[in-house]
Each structure stands twice: as structure tokens, then as C-alpha cells.
Amino acid sequence: MVSRTTADAKGDVVVLLIGMRINRFWAVHLWGPVMLGMLRMLRELEKDPARGLRSKVLLTASPRTYYVVQYWESKEKLYAYATAPDAFHHKAWGALNRKERDGKLRGQVGIWHEAYVVPEGSYEAIYGDMPAFGLAAAHGQIPLEKRGRYAKDRFAHRSQPEAAAEKTG
């Protein structure tokens, strides 16, 4: 393990934050399936890398709030998974919507997501004595010197466009 590294991301980075908040601890029959559903979706995505999930980090913000930071190949692949009729997400989202319409979820469990497309030049990363984590787990990890010692240098880094790379390579 190299002492200081950075993520080897090239181009735009797609990040999805998705999670749940337990509003009523005793409503396990309502929030339990939401939590288990997310874990099932993550297993499904791990088994089928072509769907586009590159990496994920499971986190907790409090005893009530759990979420996943996901790194995707593209916003198109993220949207394709979210809307794919053959994906577990489609079934889980349908069941959640039915419970919501029937008034069974109100106040019991909160769900949320935020999606970001971060353009190249608008992200940077540094890892000290860390295995590949977060953005580096999604895109690879390289010695810090390859992108610059300072954050301003890493923000300024631009990957060579693939078309230009093919012409020169």
C-alpha cells in the first residue's frame, strides 16, 4: 500500500446517495423490508457488473438513519437500473408505492436519495495509508504524485479524451 494515493477517476463521476430513516422503531414490519430490499438490490448489482454499479459504501448517520454511497459508470446506467422491469428495484419500488398509497408508511419510515453527476475538474481525492475506498474503490487508486501533491493540482487534472488517446495510441 502506497502511503498517499488518489482516485484514478477520469471524466464525470456519478454518485448516488440513497437511504432510509427509521421514524418509528417499533414498526420493524415496515422499515425492515426497506432495509432488506436495499441489501438485496446491492447483491443483485454486485452479481451483474454490466448494470453499472462500480462501488458502494454502506454508512449510518445515526441509530435511525442508514444509507449507501454508490458510484456508477454513468447516469444512463443508473437510470436504466432504476427503471428496468427485470430488476429487483422495480418490484421493491412498486411495493413501497402501494404501501404509501394505502397510508401504511406515513410517519413510519423515511426514504430518500440524491444523485449527482460531478464533472471532471470538480472533484479530487486523497487517501493516506488507506486501501482503495470510496471514489478510489470505484475508479482505481494511483500514487498521489500522478495527479499532484496539492488539491488545486488534482482539481486541475484532466484525463486525455479517449478519442485523442486512440489517435495517438
Descriptive account of the structure:
This protein is of the alpha+beta class and 169 residues long. Helix content is 36%, strand content 27%. It has six helices and seven strands. Strands 3-4-2-5 form a four-stranded antiparallel sheet. The protein has a three-stranded antiparallel sheet with strand order 6-1-7. Helix 1 packs antiparallel against helix 3 (88-101). The chain is elongated and about 55 Å long. The protein starts with a strand and ends with a helix. The mean pLDDT is 90.
SSE blueprint and pairings:
Layout: E1 4-7, E2 13-22, H1 28-47, E3 53-60, E4 65-72, H2 75-83, H3 88-101, E5 109-118, E6 127-128, H4 135-139, E7 141-143, H5 151-156, H6 162-168
Antiparallel strand pairs: 1-6, 1-7, 2-4, 2-5, 3-4
pLDDT averaged over residues: 90
Number of helices: 6
Beta-strand share of residues: 25-35%
What is the percent of helical residues?
A: 25-40%
Q: From the helix content, strand content and strand pairing, which structural class follows?
A: alpha+beta
Residue windows where pLDDT falls under 50 for at least 5 positions: none
For the biggest sheet, the summary is: 4 strands, antiparallel
In which order are the strands of the major sheet placed?
3-4-2-5
The general outline is: elongated
Spatial separation of the terminal alpha carbons? 30 Å
* Number of strand elements: 7
Rg, please?
19 Å
Q: What order do the helices and strands follow?
A: EEHEEHHEEHEHH
